[in-house]
Design goal:
single chain; alpha+beta; lipid binding; Oxysterol-bd_CS; Oxysterol-binding protein; globular; Oxysterol-bd; coiled coil; 20% helix; 18 strands; two-stranded parallel sheet; 26% strand
Length: 444
C-alpha cells in the first residue's frame, strides 16, 4: 500500500504505546486574569489566522497533534472491515466521522499553529495504525495527514485548512478540507468534510463549545451516503450536541436513521421508528410550549442546562459508538482525553529516530507543558519571528520549496487532485517511514 516495507518489525518506531503517561508534567494555567477582549475587539468579522494570540489561550499541542486525535476510535474502521454488508460498513464509517470530532468537547484551548515544514508522527500498535502529518502551507495554513493500518487494511488521509472567525461573543472554526477513508479489502473509498466548531462566551461567562453543519459521508463505489446534521444548540439547549441523519442508497431511499450526540454516543434505527419518535417528540414539545410561556429574551449564548446532555434511546435502536470517558484529572489538564494526554510525550526510544521537525521538539509547546508560561511565550515569539524571516528569504525561491528542493528538506506531501472527488488535495508522496531525514529544514 505504501511501498515502504513491513510495518510490524521495527521496534524503534513503536511510539506512544508502552506506559503512556496519564497526566501532563504541569497543570494548566488560569486564564481568568487575561482579557481576551483587548486583543479581539479589533478583529470582529475578521479571519484570525494572522492574529498572534497570547500563549495563555493555547493548549500544549500543535494543530498537527490535535488532528491525530481523529484516530482515537480507530476500532470503528477495523469494525467496518469485518462487516460484509456495505450498509453495516457505512454505519461504522459514519460513526468514525462523528467520533473523529468528539475530542473537541470542552477543549477551549487553542492548539499552536504549526510551523511550515513541521511534522508529527504517531504509531499505535495497540490500535493498529501509524500516522504522519505535515504543515504544507503557511498562508493559508494547511495541514496534511496520512494514516494507514499496520496490516495494510485501511488508508485515512486528508488536508485541513481551518478558517477562524471572531463574531463578538464567539469564535467560529470552519475546518475546510476533504477527508478520505479507503478500505482496500472492499475496494471502497469514503469522503466527507467536518462540521463547523464554535466556542461561545469568549469575552465573559463560561466557555462552551458546539459543532454544527451538515456532514455527508459518501461511498464512491456503491453510491450510498450518510447525510448527517450536527444541530446548533437552539433555545434552552434542547438541540445541543445532537447529530441526526439517514443512510441513503444511490436512489436516495432511506435505509436507516442515525442519531445521538457527538459528545457521547451514536445509534441507528429503522427510519419509520425514527420518524414516529420525532413526531411524538414534537407533539410533546408543542404541549409544553402551550403550558409555559417562553421568555422572549432567552439567548442560546448562555450556558446550556446540564440535562441537555442526555440521549433518548428509541426502542429497537442499535448502539454503534460510545465515547471513551475522559480521565478524572482531565479538567486540570486542558480537558485532554487519555489519548491526548500522551501525544506530546517524547520517549527515549524516539530520540534519533523521529525527525527534528516533529512537534514533540517544539520548545514553546514543551515549555507550556512543563508549566513555564514565560518561556513558552518567549519561544512562541522567537519561532514566529524565525518563520517570518525564513519566509522572506524564500520568497524568491517559492518554486524550490514547492518542488522539494534538497536544500529545503524533503516534503512528505504534494498537491494534486483527490483520486475520488478530483477536488484539490494534498496527497502523501511516500518515503517518510524510510527514516532518511537528511537535509531537513531547521525550523525550531
Amino acid at each position: 500500500m505504501s511501498g515502504e516495507g513491513n510495518h510490524g518489525n521495527q521496534p524503534a518506531q513503536q511510539n506512544g504505546v508502552e506506559n503512556q503517561r496519564t497526566s501532563l508534567p504541569a497543570p494548566m494555567f488560569s486564564r481568568n486574569d487575561v482579557s481576551i477582549w483587548s486583543i479581539l475587539k479589533k478583529c470582529i468579522g475578521m479571519e484570525l489566522s494572522k492574529i498572534a494570540m497570547p500563549v495563555i489561550f493555547n493548549e500544549p499541542l500543535s494543530f498537527l497533534q490535535r488532528l491525530s486525535e481523529y484516530m482515537e476510535h480507530t476500532y470503528l474502521i477495523h469494525q467496518a472491515n469485518t462487516a460484509t454488508d456495505s450498509v453495516e460498513r457505512m454505519k461504522c464509517v459514519a460513526a468514525f466521522a462523528v467520533s473523529a470530532v468528539a475530542s473537541q468537547w470542552d477543549r477551549t484551548g487553542k492548539p499552536f499553529n504549526p510551523l511550515l515544514g513541521e511534522t508529527y508522527e504517531l504509531i499505535r500498535d495497540d490500535l493498529g495504525f501509524r500516522w504522519v502529518s505535515e504543515q504544507v502551507s503557511h498562508h493559508p495554513p494547511v495541514s496534511a495527514f496520512h494514516a494507514e493500518g499496520l496490516k495494510e487494511d485501511f488508508v485515512f488521509h486528508g488536508s485541513i485548512y481551518p478558517k477562524l472567525k471572531f463574531w463578538g461573543k464567539s469564535i467560529e472554526a470552519e475546518p475546510k478540507g476533504l477527508i478520505t477513508l479507503e478500505l482496500p479489502k472492499y475496494n471502497e473509498s469514503y469522503t466527507w468534510t467536518n462540521p463547523t466548531c464554535c466556542v461561545h462566551n469568549i469575552i465573559v461567562g463560561q466557555l462552551w463549545i458546539e459543532q454544527y453543519g451538515s456532514v455527508e459521508v459518501i461511498n464512491h463505489k456503491t453510491g450510498e451516503r450518510c447525510s448527517m446534521m450536527f444541530k446548533p444548540c437552539g433555545l434552552f439547549g434542547k438541540e445541543l450536541h445532537k447529530v441526526e441523519g439517514f443512510i441513503l442508497d444511490k436512489s436516495k431511499k432511506r435505509l436507516c436513521a442515525i442519531y445521538g450526540k457527538w459528545t457521547d454516543c451514536l445509534y441507528t434505527v429503522d427510519p419509520a421508528a425514527f420518524d414516529a419518535h420525532k413526531k411524538s417528540d414534537k407533539k410533546n414539545l408543542d404541549e409544553k410550549k402551550g403550558n409555559k410561556q417562553s421568555s422572549v429574551d432567552e439567548e442560546p449564548e448562555e450556558v446550556p442546562p446540564p440535562d441537555a446532555e442526555t440521549v433518548t434511546v428509541i426502542p429497537g435502536s442499535e448502539l454503534i459508538w460510545k465515547i471513551t470517558p475522559r480521565p478524572d484529572n482531565s479538567a486540570k489538564f486542558y480537558a485532554f482525553s487519555s489519548f491526548a494526554m500522551h501525544l506530546n510525550e517524547l520517549e527515549k526510544s524516539m530520540e534519533g529516530v523521529i525527525p527534528q521537525t516533529d512537534s514533540r521538539f517544539r520548545p514553546d509547546i514543551c515549555a507550556m507543558e512543563n508549566g513555564d508560561i514565560d518561556l513558552a511565550s518567549a519561544e512562541k515569539k522567537r519561532l514566529e519571528e524565525k518563520q517570518r524571516m525564513a519566509r522572506k528569504n524564500r520568497t524568491k525561491s517559492t518554486d524550490e520549496w514547492k518542488n522539494r528542493s534538497a536544500a529545503l528538506g524533503p516534503r512528505w506531501f504534494q498537491q494534486g487532485p483527490n483520486p475520488h472527488t478530483k477536488a484539490q488535495d494534498w496527497l502523501y508522496s511516500k518515503g517518510y517511514w524510510g527514516r532518511n531525514y537528511t537535509n531537513l529544514p531547521e525550523i525550531y
